Amino acid sequence: xHLRKYxxxxxxxYDRHAPMSSLAQQLLRNAHTHLTGCTPxxxxxxxxxxxxxxxxxxxxxxxxxxETVSPEHGLYVVYLFAxxxxxxxxxxxxxxxxxxxxxxxxFSGNKEQEIRRRLSLSAETLRNRLSDPHIHxxxxxxxxxxxxxxxxxxxxxxxxxRRYDLSALPSEEELRSDLWDIIGVYQRxxxxxxxxxxxxxxxxxxxxxASPIEQHFNALDDFKPxxxxxxxxxxxxxxxxxxxxxxxxxxxYVPLAQHAGFNASNNHHPxxxxxxxxxxxxxxxxxxxxxxxxxxxxxxxxAQLLDYRYFFHPExxxxxxxxxxxxxxxxxYIGFLNSMDVATVWKSPDGWQGCELATRDxxxxxx
Length: 367
What we know:
Blueprint: H1 3-13, H2 23-29, H3 31-35, E1 44-48, E2 59-63, E3 75-81, E4 87-94, H4 97-106, H5 111-129, H6 132-135, H7 149-156, E5 161-165, H8 172-198, H9 228-235, H10 244-259, E6 263-265, E7 273-277, E8 280-287, H11 294-312, E9 320-325, H12 331-339, E10 342-348, E11 351-354, H13 356-360
Parallel strand pairs: 8-9, 9-10
Antiparallel strand pairs: 1-2, 2-3, 3-4, 4-5, 6-7, 7-8, 10-11
Helix pairs in contact: 1-2, 4-5, 5-7
């Protein structure tokens, strides 16, 4: 379903007095099915109209699983409908439930006021560390047309936002562009918050339980095999830590590849993915393009593809190589990869895209 149509369906059909089995509630619970094609790869999607009883402000959240997969803590992107259902706001916000529990146990004053103070301080701290190009297109406050305590907390924790009047909703192209743009800002906020947490300067004082983007311990430390036999015997016994969004990227792509006629398996440690069709084989390395850094993702993909092909595939007929990315690494790096016979596949606001090699081999999902 198109993003624009989906938002309008929720706005016109949602009724907080209707049962939880209503059409709008079903649409919200199945948001991941309807909207997967609208986001960068590896982003998890959750929609909700309340638990047990309907909420005044239904929402659809977009989560980087390396930060959080729950609206209770951490940072996430969300479409939050106003109580009157006349508008919907796209914003980066904070989970508040864990903070509420922490203050309930530790703080003796006005807890609701303290929650809003901390959320507002955290949002301001993040904005101050974002460069101007990342926030100049966005509003810095939000009006949810509700005086509810939770909605007031959402307003306080808003980092950046854009409000849409549902009677004049922009085009599908503009909505997707905004969603991709704010997810890019979201990625930068995650890195900023990790830096603040590392020095004990997170205004919320609540660990998001996020997996750090960079691991201090590397499973390949002291790994210097003397030959292929030692390489194979040692590397298969080492646990290589992979980020949750990396795994989500593979999980999103595999069923699409299978639908296109490929046999696919991600059970060949440490390789990300092997695919077969007819008498051909493809070795796929998946990379999350963190913070728009196409150079880093490209270099890591090339190194691992050549490494795995050399050690795991000594047979005369080598597998074809594929770099699978959450978003484009840029035309320059796509050309660079092609010059090394590495096909590239990535997600864009218009859906899955690929280079000529990938298109020729049928590696680009057609939705």
